[in-house]
């Protein structure tokens, strides 16, 4: 779970050490409650601008949005997401399947090779996964592989993954994530992270592009890899350049002037609103799966008893105007969210809308409090972060304060803290209510459930319930798709009706901007959250 991947990077909220879905299930069933480098290149056929930053080109250390974009171009995965399709499909693999409930076996395509000419075999795959877990870099995505017991080479083209927990339905969706790039065992060190310059020179990757010139977080130039054979297909534009911006102002100006051909992450809502009115570019919207929400510390939030605390949470849920936040603060770049699983993800439901209403309901909120014997106004100490979730966070949380105060049922004490302190103080139970955000690791509903609500969840909200835990284990290991969807919808309803550890607020779209002559961007703005240069052309 890429922790709070920040607005400029995919470090999970995916920013926190998130608990992998598979790792959670495994623990439950086990009984535990820059410089410049390059080889020349021949110019860019198309220029894409971004404010995201690359943290590392080595998959073992990369768990952020900026690195993900680079990885998407240069690395191949056993399974990957075709543009517009959130279902994992064979990429380097010819096929993958459960051969026993605890063994997931993949057969590679014949004749694969890395961009440096070295063969890509089952040994390469085993090395890549063993290396990811062995290095276990604190900045990396190894936690996603928590359910992986071991990886074995069956023959040159066959690799078998032995899982700790049987029938893990999330494992195929984890293979296309940042935990799954295949690297060349002949050039990558087994026990340490490789420097970006060495990754570029060694070309121990096999994706649709190679890097021809690398000036980190300034300009990166890509050239189509003629030896790539996978689901992303032949790049429509052989040469792509990625230009990195320190501010969204300059990114917006270059889009308007035609100095660059496309922009992806992270323009402000005001920038996007302005660009929608331009006749020189088109603004494209796609499903994103990003979630914004308020977390309740179950120990320190207001209320003298568990029943009173629950009543406060229900009253807050009934008092918020999500549509106003989406419209007035985020200029409709976000949508109202009524569950922890955003719309568009398989199995998503909207229990908060069904139970608490699509809009604010002061009478319902007052009744929850009165029935629990709670005097009003209830004092809420609400903390938010102004620098990690985007420049509009301050406006968002001022609006939330105004909405809650406006009911007369609450008195909100709103405070903000910079991200480094925010993480530390939150972990010390300093915040009774606090802001969080989430970017998905993969488009499976469990990625919005187990990390949030299972034992030892990354929210550190002191929420744990044996019944919810059992439901999470059940859905994550249910091989029948229809039954699994029903289980996922039921756990969403139970959480909204009986527990409310979080109140969902908003679900973010993916936004891309392209010059009028540029085609293909709409194909890659999908639930996989992978921005693929292969589909872009002009």
From TrEMBL:
Keywords: Signal, Transport. Residues 88-457 form the Solute-binding protein family domain. It is found in: Cell envelope. Residues 1-30 form the signal peptide. Its main location: other. Gene3D superfamilies: Dipeptide-binding Protein, Domain 3 (3.10.105.10), Periplasmic binding protein-like II (3.40.190.10). Belongs to the bacterial solute-binding protein 5 family. PANTHER family: PERIPLASMIC BINDING COMPONENT OF ABC TRANSPORTER, PERIPLASMIC OLIGOPEPTIDE-BINDING PROTEIN-RELATED. This is ABC transporter substrate-binding protein. It comes from Nocardia xishanensis.
């Amino acid at each position: 779970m890429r922790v709070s991947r920040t607005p400029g990077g995919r470090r999970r909220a995916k920013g926190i050490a998130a608990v992998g879905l598979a790792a959670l299930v495994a623990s439950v069933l086990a009984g535990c409650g820059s410089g410049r480098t390059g080889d020349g290149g021949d110019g860019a056929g198309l220029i894409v601008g971004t404010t995201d930053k690359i943290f590392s080109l080595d998959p073992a250390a990369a768990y952020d949005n900026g690195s993900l974009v680079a990885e998407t171009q240069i690395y191949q995965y056993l399974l990957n997401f075709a543009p517009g399709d959130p279902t994992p499909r064979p990429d380097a693999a010819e096929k993958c399947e459960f051969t026993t409930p605890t063994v997931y076996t993949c057969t590679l395509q014949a004749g694969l090779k890395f961009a440096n000419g070295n063969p890509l075999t089952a040994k390469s795959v085993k090395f890549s996964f063993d290396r990811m877990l062995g290095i276990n870099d604190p900045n990396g995505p190894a936690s996603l592989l928590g359910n992986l017991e071991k990886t074995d080479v069956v023959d040159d083209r066959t690799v078998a993954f032995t899982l700790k927990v049987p029938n893990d339905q999330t494992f195929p969706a984890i293979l296309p994530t940042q935990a799954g790039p295949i690297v060349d065992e002949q050039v990558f060190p087994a026990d340490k992270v490789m420097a970006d310059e060495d990754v570029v020179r060694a070309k121990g990757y096999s994706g649709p592009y190679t890097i021809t010139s690398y000036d980190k977080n300034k300009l990166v130039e890509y050239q189509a890899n003629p030896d790539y054979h996978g689901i992303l297909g032949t790049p429509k534009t052989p040469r792509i350049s990625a230009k990195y911006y320190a501010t969204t102002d300059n990114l917006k100006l270059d889009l308007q002037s035609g100095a660059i051909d496309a922009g992806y992450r992270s323009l402000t809502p005001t920038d996007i609103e302005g660009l929608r009115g331009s006749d020189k570019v088109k603004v494209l919207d796609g499903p994103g799966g990003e979630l914004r929400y308020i977390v309740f510390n179950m120990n320190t939030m207001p209320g003298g008893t568990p029943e009173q605390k629950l009543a406060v949470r229900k009253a807050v849920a009934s008092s918020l105007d999500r549509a106003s936040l989406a419209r007035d603060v985020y200029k409709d770049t976000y949508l109202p969210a009524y569950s922890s699983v955003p719309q568009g993800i398989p199995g998503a439901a909207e229990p908060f809308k069904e139970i608490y209403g699509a809009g604010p309901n002061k009478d319902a909120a007052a009744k929850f409090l009165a029935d629990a014997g709670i005097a009003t106004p209830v004092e809420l100490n609400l903390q938010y972060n102004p620098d990690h979730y985007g420049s509009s966070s301050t406006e968002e949380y001022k609006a939330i304060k105004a909405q809650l105060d406006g009911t007369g049922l609450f008195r909100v004490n709103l405070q903000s803290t910079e991200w480094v302190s925010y993480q530390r103080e939150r972990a010390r139970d300093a915040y009774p209510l606090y802001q969080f955000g989430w970017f998905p690791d993969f488009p499976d509903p469990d990625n919005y459930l187990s990390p949030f609500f299972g034992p030892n969840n990354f929210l550190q909200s002191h929420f744990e319930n044996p019944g919810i835990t059992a439901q999470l284990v059940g859905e994550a290991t249910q091989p029948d798709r229809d039954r699994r969807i029903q289980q996922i919808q039921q756990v969403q309803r139970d959480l909204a009706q009986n527990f409310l550890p979080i109140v969902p607020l908003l679900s973010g779209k993916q936004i891309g901007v392209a010059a009028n002559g540029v085609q293909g961007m709409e194909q890659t703005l999908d639930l996989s959250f992978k921005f693929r240069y292969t589909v872009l052309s002009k």
